[in-house]
Design brief:
Beta-Lactamase; alpha+beta; five-stranded mixed β-sheet; five-stranded antiparallel β-sheet; 14 strands; 413 residues
Length: 413
């Protein structure tokens, strides 16, 4: 009940009576209590939701949020994560964001990433949003209704899922790179065997040619020539057999390649070895690097070979300072990649020779067939690019790779 008591005054201002009014407000009290309970339930549900919930008005101001949102703001170190989300959504969706707002259709399961900086891991969120219109409850609009547009933004963190997917993808890349390295190793071994056979084979062919051109052939010369021709035939068969055993290189489709992403994957593949060797990586990618039209696996193998060579050089040189610096940049219509190490470097006399097949500067215990940089040169040539060793760099070795952006490479040529 609602009880109101008011004094009744006479002409002299003295209280003569009291006026009491009793009103039954049971129904109104019940309604108010029900509204308060519903408000408390809604707030509890929103706060207990395991997703980020934020309500934004037309100006982008957050008018309602939940506890998960506040926790996220503290974790990310930003005042309003919703503003960062909206910016990322506009970049990811482009014109579709404004179109969804105009039509009121909203969006669902739009994935965005947030880089907190400071070396922290990138966090991923799956966002859904709905626009709706609601009457403005301010006093200025009591007599003239005015509606305002709100955005209900719901974000679910999927960083763990993304990390799992990335781990699966990196494992697949490791398997692919291991298979490619095995094939490349077999090709190097067989090519080296063919190269070694062709030396004496060519000498035998030259001797047979000399005997054939002699005018005064004797029985002994004819017998020797017959033996040499049999040796040449056997040599041809052996070389053809080795060439037939050589596995064919993997052919891949042509497409746009994000060089920054490829280099990041290569560093991920080499992380365990880099940590074991105590090598400090200085990775400086250009944020807005244009994609190149090329072969992703070929470029990945190229950069992997250069990074492996840098680690080998620093291991063999026993460098006290072990730094690996990788930088990307855009020059006109060319993507520039610079890879530096603090190893012993390459002398001026060997700066061109190291790109020749079957040449290596590594110790005998770790020798390969010497086809690593030759393969690198082949991949660069396929993309109409250039690779050079910087003669002005004195702290180790610096490779400078330039790859045209719009060139259409011809694989295998």
């Amino acid at each position: 009940a609602e009880l109101t008591i008011a004094p009744v005054l006479d002409a002299a201002g003295r209280t003569t009576h009291y006026l009491g009014m009793h009103r039954d407000v049971t129904e109104m009290h019940a309604l108010e209590h029900q509204v308060r309970n519903q408000k408390a339930v809604i707030e509890s549900v929103v706060n207990c939701a395991p997703v980020v919930v934020a309500l934004l008005d037309e100006t982008g101001r957050v008018v309602l949020d939940n506890l998960t949102y506040k926790t996220l703001a503290a974790d990310l170190g930003v005042q309003e994560p919703a503003a960062e989300f909206v910016v990322a959504l506009k970049e990811a969706m482009g014109a579709n964001f404004d179109r969804a707002r105009a039509t009121g259709t909203g969006f669902a399961r739009q994935e965005i990433s947030f880089d907190p900086g400071g070396g922290g891991p990138v966090r991923w969120f799956s966002c859904s949003g709905t626009w709706f219109r609601e009457s403005d409850g301010s006093a200025d609009n009591f007599f003239e209704a005015h509606e305002q547009t709100y955005l209900l933004l719901v974000a679910n963190e999927v960083t763990g899922l993304k990390q799992g997917q990335e781990e699966v993808r990196m494992n697949a890349l490791r398997a692919l790179m291991a298979e490619d390295e095995l094939v490349q190793g077999m090709r190097e071994t067989l090519a080296g065997a063919i190269f070694q056979l062709e030396g004496p084979y060519n000498m035998i062919r030259a001797a047979a040619g000399i005997l054939e051109r002699r005018a005064n052939s004797t029985v002994e010369n004819e017998a020797l020539l017959s033996v040499l021709q049999q040796a040449l035939a056997s040599g041809d068969q052996a070389i053809d057999a080795l060439r037939g055993c050589m596995p064919a290189p993997h052919m891949e489709p042509l497409g746009p390649v994000n060089v920054n992403q490829v280099l990041r994957e290569v560093l991920g593949l080499c992380t365990s070895r880099l940590l074991a060797a105590g090598i400090v990586v200085d990775w400086r990618p250009e944020p807005m690097l244009p994609p190149v039209l090329g072969y992703e696996n070929g470029l990945r193998g190229l950069f992997k070979q250069l990074v492996d060579n840098a680690m080998d050089a620093m291991d063999e040189g026993n460098s006290s300072v072990r730094d690996l610096r990788i930088r990307t940049a855009s020059e006109r219509e060319t993507v520039l990649v610079i890879i530096e190490d603090t190893g012993p470097g390459v002398s001026a006399a060997l700066r061109l020779k190291v790109f020749e097949p079957f040449f290596t500067t590594k110790r005998a215990a770790r020798r390969r067939a010497g086809m690593g940089l030759a393969m690198v040169q082949d991949v660069v040539n396929e993309h109409a690019g250039t690779i050079e060793i910087d003669p002005t760099y004195a702290d180790g070795c610096r490779f400078i790779i330039r790859i045209p952006v719009r060139h259409v490479p011809a694989q295998g040529q």
